From TrEMBL:
This is PilZ domain-containing protein. It comes from Leptospira biflexa serovar Patoc (strain Patoc 1 / ATCC 23582 / Paris). It holds the Pfam family DUF1577. It comes from the Bacteria. InterPro entries: DUF1577.
Length: 429
């Protein structure tokens, strides 16, 4: 059922009519279309819920009866219905939409014909210009975002002591390093933890591996260094890969004979170093590959790294990448607090904060559960946990909207008092 126009809705309509040529003639479809125009004009990113995936979308094009959205991580699953959710003028909107077409990262939806669901904020956001915060990211899953039930629980159970340290507000990097090496040595005593340097001198094959990992960020697993098929046959695994794609690309560019000869030379080179099997998995800081963990077995040890053991190393590297980034965010936030984590506005429900680091902005889209430390006064630091639900690219800086889901005892009472004074004793609309 369509809904009537509130004062906030009428204010929005007035603004939109001043911005765009089309005018609203009273029907819901035009109001909805103008909401999408507003999202496009403000370059606003919003939620797109497709089956169980919570994705980030942006308006690409608006036609008479359809809207084209850009969704980078979209994977078609056969369903032709989805939900979109966004906030405009302090009102939260949600629509169920029909999908007309899916083409790679673009999806075309039918423009909704009526306002299906909306909710006016209970608590008004109060703008502030003298409030700053520290924050850390909280672990939700290996891949970030929503938990993959079973898979991530199993991964966490494999590293109980490591995960206990990772979940701390201030993980001990020295202790993390000890736990990392102990975990690797359960698989093999032959390993290398390598961080890339710009001017490092590498042989032909190590340089190729470095470029492959930097470009693809994939985990390379060679189960048998005595067989060329282990290097170039198509892999059948979700997280473990070989050089199949690189061989295919090289064959296309330089010919089948050259490509086969290159990987056969690589295989012989590694066999001369007595490799039997190995896994190379990237270490990332934010989403940037900065190095790798390489674990291998040799002819002297007389064992082969199994697929399950390779997955174990992959999961270990994912946790290490997460905790390295957590520590980097922690120190970056604490040391440059006033330039990176300014609070823009705040209410009893959530807040909007500002950052300047694009890498951090992109990373928080997946790892969006955070713990915030907000000094309301010299005597009181408020501790809140929340979920980032809005991501706004402002060009030279970024705004992120957080909804709280837990707080320290009595903190909300102190926040209420703070907002009461800031808002001239007006807390709700």
């Amino acid at each position: 059922m369509a809904i009537g126009r509130t004062d906030s809705m009428q204010e929005l309509i007035t603004i939109l009519e001043s911005l765009f040529d089309e005018t609203i003639i009273g029907s819901d479809v035009n109001i909805v279309k103008h909401l999408f125009y507003y999202l496009k004009a403000d370059n606003r990113e919003f939620e797109f819920i497709y089956e169980e995936d919570n994705l980030v979308a942006a308006v690409e094009e608006i036609e008479a009866h359809s809207v084209t959205l850009m969704i980078p991580d979209l994977v078609e699953k056969g369903s032709r219905r989805a939900r979109v959710r966004f906030e405009v003028m302090n009102i939260n909107y949600q629509f169920e939409v029909v999908i007309l077409d899916i083409q790679k990262e673009q999806i075309v939806i039918k423009t909704p014909t009526e306002l299906q669901s909306y909710q006016l904020r209970t608590n008004k956001r109060i703008p502030v210009d003298d409030l700053f915060m520290n924050f850390i990211i909280l672990f939700r899953s290996l891949s970030g975002g929503s938990r993959e039930v079973g898979k991530n629980l199993y991964a966490e159970s494999r590293f109980p002591h490591l995960m206990k340290e990772v979940r701390k507000d201030r993980p001990d990097s020295k202790l993390i390093n000890i736990m990392l090496t102990e975990a690797i040595e359960r698989i093999s005593k032959d390993y290398e933890i390598h961080f890339f340097k710009e001017d490092e001198k590498l042989n032909e094959f190590d340089d190729f591996i470095k470029k492959t990992i930097l470009q693809t960020s994939k985990t390379i697993y060679i189960s048998d260094c005595n067989r060329i098929t282990s290097y170039i046959n198509e892999p059948n695994d979700e997280v473990l890969f070989n050089y199949f794609s690189e061989h295919k690309e090289m064959a296309k560019e330089l010919g089948d004979e050259f490509a086969l000869e290159f990987f056969e030379s690589m295989r012989k080179h590694e066999s001369r170093n007595f490799y039997v099997s190995y896994i190379i998995t990237p270490i990332r800081l934010y989403e940037d590959v900065v190095g790798y963990i390489k674990v291998f077995s040799t002819a002297m040890e007389r064992f082969t790294i199994s697929q399950n053991q390779a997955v174990y190393i992959f999961e270990l590297a994912e946790i290490i990448s997460y905790v390295f980034t957590k520590i980097a965010i922690q120190y970056g936030s604490y040391e440059t607090m006033q330039s990176t984590t300014k609070v823009v506005d705040i209410s009893l429900d959530g807040l909007l904060f500002e950052i300047y680091d694009k890498r951090l902005f992109q990373y928080l889209k997946r790892h969006n559960i955070i713990k915030m430390f907000i000094p309301l006064s010299k005597e009181r630091t408020m501790i809140l946990r929340g979920e980032i639900i809005r991501f706004l690219d402002k060009g030279d800086h970024y705004h992120l909207g957080v909804n709280y889901f837990s707080s320290a005892p009595d903190d909300m009472l102190f926040l209420e008092s703070y907002l009461f004074e800031k808002s001239m004793k007006i807390l709700s609309e």
